[in-house]
Design brief:
The complex is a heterodimer of chains A (340) and B (255).
Chain A: H1 8-44, H2 51-76, H3 84-103, H4 109-136, H5 142-160, E1 166-167, H6 170-181, E2 183-184, E3 187-188, H7 189-207, H8 209-219, H9 221-226, H10 231-257, E4 259-260, H11 268-278, H12 290-309, H13 318-339
Antiparallel strand pairs in A: 1-4, 2-3
Helix pairs in contact in A: 1-12, 1-13, 2-7, 2-8, 2-10, 2-11, 2-12, 3-4, 3-5, 3-10, 4-10, 6-10, 7-8, 8-10, 11-12, 11-13
Chain B: E1 11-20, E2 23-33, E3 38-42, H1 49-56, E4 64-69, E5 72-74, H2 79-84, E6 87-90, H3 102-106, H4 121-135, H5 151-164, E7 169-173, H6 181-196, E8 200-205, H7 208-214, E9 217-222, E10 225-231, H8 237-246, H9 251-254
Parallel strand pairs in B: 3-8, 3-9, 6-7, 7-8
Antiparallel strand pairs in B: 1-2, 1-4, 4-5, 9-10
Helix pairs in contact in B: 4-5, 5-6
The chains are: A mainly alpha (340), B alpha/beta (255).
Subcellular location (chain B): Cell membrane
Domain ABC transporter (chain B): 11-248
Pfam families (chain B): ABC_tran
């Protein structure tokens, strides 16, 4: 920009200030949204800052958020998973069918719930392992693999539901409602689990060898391989971890409506990927930030929430605004690259 | 200055061959390396020198031939095997993960951890500072991603990694390519330090001057075959050029 006159120290400073903007960007955006929401709610006396609204926003964020934490690892390691939305729908269908079919034989409701949770986690684990196996051992592009499994799971849940809706047995539905709606006052279980997953994810990404291997593989797979990092195993682990977290998200999702249909989890994969990118993780891999992802998720859900509270902009434009923000986030990432 | 070649060689590659499809990339090549010695590997692009060295570093498995380390038959099938034999490779382009800082790169694949199993960044940075203080005292950028470093600085991080983990056999692929004169001198100094420690170095290069300055012996390859191995003191630049281009052994050596 400044041409040949730019000396080395100046360049350094410039890249540093941009790096700071890069770190602060998502936080500033979130703060701006909160201020905007507060301002709007002051003018039209809506309930933006009420505990119930905040609780509601956070609970709804939890599904995408938990999945997006796993997605952060996959993307950091240079991968991608488009199948998570369909996977969630398929797992939800499986859980409902499993619990319904056992409802007659197993008397104890807590037992049934545990079986349902086990089914969700093992299905997620298996689905993630299948994606991981195809990407690592069969050496198929992650985009292709997960595009394929996305179609497969979506079609399977449609088939299981015979085109309609799979509904959980009524007594069971009442029994598991607290898993989504319960908790400690406004601090509902989805929020607690999301917070737990996020903190754990941040620790793993920043403070363990596994997190570092993800960044190294995404940065330069060959270097990682020559540094005797078991590239395939780490990659596999990122997909399995993501599958497992999709299972966790499904456990929290099923109690909310007590049903699964072909439209369950539609576009979740894109929301999760968008949250990861808005948070500052590099789409090409090599650098990941779990706390950024959490902020990305909150930004996306706050936009929807604020649009619902105001008449100024139609809520139908939610997707358009989210789209602009995603593109802006990527532009900011590129600025950073150009500065170094 | 002269290298003692009476003992057991650090590495011997005997009659090694490797084909890709129908092409013999490495054809019955034998080279050896003694402690404290630098052996240059010269040849055109595609002469097979990189392939030969990738067999030693475990990136490729040879079709035929044997590798001996310290006189004992070694099985090297992947980079981890090579590491077990204290063979470290410094690739020109593949040395470092750009988005990680110097310490993370130095310890990549062998992170120091705390008792809880978390990576111990403080200790890794302290160790990195200690070794860089010895190898490259001017090095300052410990917390930046290595993409912010100059070519010579990157090279010194890569070399520090090898030295820290007790490399006995070092493979350097074009270590001075893309470096300025000052940084080339720095790398030459580093190589001198490593020789004093009894480390053996295979140095792959295009540059004859590099090789004449840094190496004790030079092995020249052409079309996958070994043309010959010469003491750099016994040959001229022209002799070596003749070996590279024409695949001809120097007159005097042949006599």
């Amino acid at each position: 920009m400044t041409g040949a006159a730019a000396t080395a120290p100046q360049r350094r400073d410039r890249s540093h200030s941009l790096l700071d903007l890069h770190v602060l960007g998502p936080i500033l955006a979130l703060a701006a949204l909160i201020l905007l929401g507060t301002g709007i709610s002051a003018t039209n006396e809506s309930t933006f800052l009420s505990a119930s609204n905040i609780s509601n926003v956070l609970s709804r964020s939890a599904f995408i958020g938990i999945i997006a934490v796993g997605m952060t690892f996959v993307i950091t390691a240079g991968g991608l998973d488009l199948s998570v939305g369909s996977m969630a729908a398929f797992i939800a269908g499986l859980v409902i069918l499993t619990m319904n079919s056992l409802a007659g034989t197993v008397e104890s409701v807590p037992m049934l719930v545990l079986v349902g949770m086990g089914a969700a986690l093992s299905a997620g684990l298996a689905a993630g392992a299948i994606n991981g196996f195809l990407v690592t051992n069969m050496r198929i592009e992650a985009f292709i693999v997960t595009l394929g499994t996305m179609g497969i799971y979506r079609s399977l849940v449609t088939w299981l539901a015979d085109g309609g809706t799979l509904s959980l047995d009524f007594t069971l539905r009442t029994a598991i409602r607290p898993i989504y709606f319960g908790g400690f006052g406004w601090l509902t279980w989805p929020i607690i689990v999301f917070a737990f997953v996020a903190v754990l994810g941040e620790l793993v990404m920043r403070r363990t060898a596994f997190g570092r291997y993800c960044a190294a593989i995404g940065s330069n797979e060959q270097v990682a391989r020559y540094s005797s990092v078991n590239v395939n195993r780490v990659r596999m682990a990122t997909y399995v971890l993501l599958g497992l977290l999709v299972g966790v998200a499904t456990i929290l999702y099923v109690p909310r409506l007590g049903s699964a249909s072909p439209t369950t989890g539609v576009l979740w994969e894109l929301e999760a990927i968008a949250a990861v990118i808005i948070g500052g993780t590099v789409l090409k891999g090599g650098f990941g930030r779990v706390w950024g992802t959490v902020i990305g998720v909150l930004i996306l859900s706050l936009i929807g929430n604020i649009l619902n509270l105001t008449d100024a902009v139609s809520p139908y434009l939610n997707g358009a605004i989210q789209g602009v923000i995603i593109i802006l986030a990527v532009v900011l990432q590129r600025e950073k690259k150009a500065g170094t | 200055m002269t290298v003692d070649r009476t003992g057991t060689p650090l590495v011997e590659m005997r009659n090694v061959s490797l084909s890709f499809g129908g092409v013999k990339a490495v054809d019955d090549v034998s080279v050896d390396l003694f402690p404290g010695e630098v052996v240059g590997l010269l040849g055109h692009n595609g002469a097979g020198k990189s392939t030969l060295i990738k067999i030693l570093s475990g990136a490729y498995a040879a079709d035929a031939g044997e590798i001996h380390v310290n006189g004992e038959r070694a099985r090297i099938e992947n980079p981890r095997d090579a590491r077990r034999y204290n063979i470290e490779t410094i690739y020109q382009t593949l040395a470092l993960a750009d988005n990680l800082d110097a310490a993370s790169n130095l310890f990549l694949g062998r992170e120091l951890t705390t008792r809880l199993g978390f990576v111990d960044d403080a200790r890794m940075e302290a160790e990195t500072r200690a070794i860089m203080g010895r190898l490259n005292p001017n090095f300052r950028k410990f917390s930046d991603p290595v993409s912010a470093l100059s070519g010579g600085q990157r090279q010194s991080v890569a070399i520090a990694r090898a030295v820290y983990f007790d490399a006995r056999i070092l493979i350097m692929d074009e270590p001075t390519a893309a470096l300025g004169p000052q940084e080339t001198a720095m790398v030459a100094e580093l190589i001198g330090e490593l020789k004093k420690d009894g480390i053996g170095i295979f140095l792959i290069s295009h540059d004859i001057h590099d090789v004449m300055d840094l190496c004790d012996r030079v092995s020249v390859m052409k079309n996958g075959k070994l043309v010959g191995t010469e003491d750099v003191g016994d040959v001229t630049d022209d002799d070596i050029l003749g070996m590279i281009i024409l695949g001809k052994k120097p007159e005097r050596a042949a006599a």
